[in-house]
Amino acid sequence: MQELTHYVNGEKVAGTSGRFADVLNPATGEVQAKVPLATKAEMDAVIAKAAEAQVGWAATNPQKRARVMMKFGQLINEHMDTLAELVAREHGKTLPDARGDVQRGLEVVEVCMGTPSLLKGEFTDSGGPGIDLYSMRQPLGVVAGITPFNFPAMIPLWKMAPALSCGNAMILKPSERVPSTSLYLAELLKEAGLPDGVLQVVNGDKEAVDAILDNETIQAVGFVGSTPIAQYIYGRAATNGKRAQCFGGAKNHMLIMPDADLDKAADALVGAGFGAAGERCMAISVAVPVGKETADGLIERLLPRIEKLKVGPYTAGEDIDYGPVITAQAKARIEGLIDSGVEQGAKLLTDGRGLTLQGYENGYFVGPTLFDNVTAEMDIYKEEVFGPVLSTVRMDNYEDALNLVKDNAYGNGTAIYTADGDTARDFANRVNVGMVGINFPIPVPLSYHTFGGWKKSAFGDLNQYGPDAFRFYTRTKTVTQRWFSGIKEGGEFNFKAMD
Questions:
Q1: Residue 217: predicted pLDDT
Q2: Which of 112, 166, 246, 281 is labelled catalytic?
């Protein structure tokens, strides 16, 4: 049995708590490793070491920090297959999907190679007689990232790359279900030239999270996970005077208008709904066809596509469409929600419950599931399923369909398929969701934009990656300076304008 470690001060360090979590192979249900769970004392000691290392890193000029990101990006490319294997083995993703996980994180690293231009301040010449003003962006100090199981490479990279590029030290607490990718990335960062102690990877559970939230040295916390935990972390971090950006759950809708290309819409829904076994915060889990003819045509096209999907372990080849869900508890919860959909009157068209694969009978596989005639009152609609389940909610007209999205508690992503530009523009302007796709199913912005939801999908003022990340991980300091010319006499006791 492999026993994993923390990564502290540039070295693999064994845990001292005596507590461990099982790291499972979701395809077989077997325990493949044990990961140590840090105590508060362990976490506090690691944070103190990070604070020491951060001073020198902050004093390193932005060009040199950017060069570390350049080398890091090169190493990620060179080790892409190894990283994808780690992601697939612990999460269960197919290898193509795992490589995509790494690639989307790498794209944020690539943006951070341009850090010097992103950290430029502002300057005002002669704001008053002999007076200049300038602002500069300075690092916060020690920050923390708490990342989820569903993107073992991408989201840690979304957190660490901007935070480190800005001159901070980072404490990264990855999900204890998928720790190996973060540990490996830390080793690559050291090889890229990151000084020891600037990135510390500490594994743990709630005790470690609370230690981060309560430690006075930590200045900011970034989190991705479920909405209840996002709200908890945001509240506790804010109470303790920390910045926080906490991203939670989602219920993403795709509207399909009567003028849409139904074949393209069906293809998009299958990929967006069932890819990664639906374990994506940007997965489309609700199809909203407008009008009976649209709905009937969409279902007619979805069924054969869904029936052809291949479910299996990542080791079965590159043509597998998706793998298992993360745990037995996740599988049971998904199948329980499918049960509730049937009980509450939704029409079950494909049933993914009870799927077993020869040789993988103990794996956490759920087959692709399609519901029709779902209503907004049903649990299968109201709850985030986070599994390979697509619900169809039929609407008679565009306004009702739009209001369905607007009334939903979540606001991460949404999409519309239409051939009409006016409808598309109206939808994009009026919908209260953070990321919108027009004839594009999963509208995750490119890395030089920024990622963030609205409503109960996000807590905090600034989004992930892109320009917002550099705002989040720095403080602005503004300096007002005067250089005297000639002799000045007497003090001024009033607060007057700079005229």
A1: 98
A2: 281
Q: Give 455's strand partners.
A: 410
Q: Are 152 and 182 in contact (CB under 8 A)?
A: yes
Q: Which long-range contacts (C-beta less than 8 Å, at least 24 apart) are formed by 8-14?
A: 8/46, 8/49, 8/197, 8/200, 8/201, 8/202, 9/49, 9/53, 9/196, 9/197, 9/200, 10/190, 10/195, 10/196, 10/197, 11/196, 12/183
Please tell me the distance from the alpha carbon of residue 36 to that of residue 173, in angstroms, as a whole number: 12
- At 375, list the tokens: 């209503």
Verify whether residue 281 is a known catalytic residue. Answer: yes
Are 448 and 466 in contact by the 8 Å Cβ rule? The answer is yes
CB 289, CB 321: distance < 8 Å: no
Residue in the structure block whose two tokens are 């209840």: 228
Summarize the confidence of residues 351-372 as an average pLDDT.
Answer: 97
What does the pLDDT read at residue 236? 98
Torsion of the alpha carbons at 27, 160, 196 and 70, rounded to the nearest 10: 100
Q: Which domains are seen in the chain, by residue range?
A: 2-248+457-479 (3.40.605.10), 252-438 (3.40.309.10)
- Whether the per-residue pLDDT at 490 is higher than 70: the answer is no
Strands (E), 52-168: 122-128, 131-139, 142-146
Q: How far apart are CA 442 and CA 228, in angstroms?
A: 23
